Amino acid sequence: MSLNVIFNSADPGIYNIKTHAEGPAGALPLTPEMLVDSPSGNIFGLTLNAGMGWDPNRLLGTEVLILGTQGGIRAEDGRPIALGYHTGHWEIGLQMRAAAETIAKENGVPFAAYVSDPCDGRSQGTTGMFDSLPYRNDAAMVFRRLIRSLPTRKAVIGVATCDKGLPAMMIALAATHHLPTIIVPGGATLPPTHGEDAGKIQTIGARFANQELSLKEAAELGCRACASPGGGCQFLGTAGTSQVVAEGLGMALPHSALAPSGQEVWLDIARQSARAALLMQLKGLTTKDIITDKAIENAMTVHAAFGGSTNLLLHIPAIAYAAGCKAPTVEQWMAINRKVPRLVSVLPNGPDYHPTVRAFMAGGVPEVMLHLRKLGLLHEDVLTVTGETLGDNLDVWERSERRRRFRELLVACDGVQPDEVIMSPEQAKARSLTSTITFPSGNIAPEGSVIKSTAIDASVVDEQGIYRHTGKAKVFTSEKAGIRAIKHGEIQAGDMMVVMGGGPSGTGMEETYQLTSALKHLSYGKFVSLLTDARFSGVSTGACIGHIGPEALAGGPIGKLRDGDIIEMIIDRNQLVGSINFIGTEGHPLSPEEGAVELANRPLHPELRAHPDLPDDTRLWAALQAVSGGTWAGCIYDTDKILDVINAGLKALKENNSN
């Protein structure tokens, strides 16, 4: 490229210029009342709509805004012109189009806008992860601004798939209290007929470094892991769990989560969702009628029954806050996980590692809900986006042809019985499925922590369902140092890995899936435990404890641990209680109480610091969410609390300057 090429183009077509045109034919459907009483923006909006080619005679239909997270540029035949960040947003423009065409057929006026989303898998182990969780708040804010910037919209449809885009969309729609809103889940990618899922495939580097995989195997498996070009990953990570939670909240149509991306049933979900949005508008049904305290509890119950991602502990409270509902407490999470059995056997929890598309074929969320309502664990009187109650939805689902046909297709296509994927409580108990999440505390985590205890390898759990590990700490002040140690053979069975500095103030609360996935898929990994103040990918498994609070850079005890410290971890997978305690050093044992005193008197680790590449944007996010209640409140922005702190600071500065 040179200036000569730019200013001396060989293409004569660039000089074929028009400087004026006739404009659209016809006339705007204006009335005297509109001209006198309507804001000028509303009338100018009609001019813009006609300018974009919409038939002027159809301008007064119901306006519906379709928001999506689409990324990349896709040719009509599906070829990539410009790649997206991930499969999860690559195809959803097709769903948006299907929804828009349906609205137009119903004499509505569809609008579309986009806020694309990042890929947590792509940014694992990179500084891109520092923007992952903060993106959620930013995207939700932009979605809300887009909704408000189209004042004439009468309903909003959100189309999203993956780890941060879908939670951001749910938060934005939950805050849109006085409009009908609906979520269209972006579905799941297919697993390869012969190969590995997109979760396990992220460990090829660690397995190759530990001589458990050849270069040829790594290259071939890595190429085929995403067997279809669209949809979220094939496991019940944050993407899949978020889809399930959207349906559990009543924000998405029954049997819409985890559908195979790009296929006719997936497109039909978008069409039916568009019709539902128009029906909600006709009935005067709005978001505040759907998302209630009872709906939040239903979503938590469904989350527990599926064995969902621990990241939803950050997202469901944020959705509740946006909706004006009560944010769930740790005590509520514990109570729900104690009484709700896990019923779903999929990746990464097992015991059989079915891809999530099989959960859809087996009946998905409504099938799980049929079991839950027999146990009396659901609020069946909540309204949903169908315009009917949850109980009514389940009555129809139970006797529907759709239910029967898809369950039959699972047997025909994969030779898998539906009840092997979605089990009855009796079957689940017989297969020893345990509840999802435990919240350990102790002198290392006085504010609490989280472990997906159902994913601890059953072979290292005793007959009472208790995992015990006492070992010497190997301390790392970055995830990079931790994964380097794994790849270079510096971690052995029996080690207790401690990765500090990964909370909001250090890295934007990065995911450490590099570490947890390596431990899951290395032969010795089930004998290694991990403690961190960072968070985990929804597909993380094993004896891995995250969300430890306070975080190290806030003075938390985890930031005071040293190599060689003895740590005791006890996790009861049945009673869902656990503890993580520093109990001294070799030759100087301490009780947990004495250990707490010792940690209180220690300085922070000398190498502990915020990552030098932490963006200012993320530093600001970390400060704002900390003032608003931190991670246990869902990393929200509580405007009133933030303003109180700012005003108090301004007052203190003013008083200090006057002295």
TrEMBL record:
Record key words, sorted: Lyase
Enzyme type, top EC level: lyase
EC numbers: 4.2.1.82
Domain named Dihydroxy-acid/6-phosphogluconate dehydratase N-terminal: residues: 87-393
Spans traversing the lipid bilayer: none
One Gene Ontology MF term: xylonate dehydratase activity
Domain Dihydroxy-acid/6-phosphogluconate dehydratase C-terminal: 432-576
InterPro entries in UniProt: Dehydratase_YjhG/YagF, Dihydro-acid_dehy_C, DiOHA_6PGluconate_deHydtase_CS, ILV_EDD_C, ILV_EDD_N, IlvD/EDD_N
PANTHER family, alphabetized: D-XYLONATE DEHYDRATASE, D-XYLONATE DEHYDRATASE YAGF-RELATED
Membership in a protein family: Belongs to the IlvD/Edd family.
Protein name: YjhG/YagF family D-xylonate dehydratase
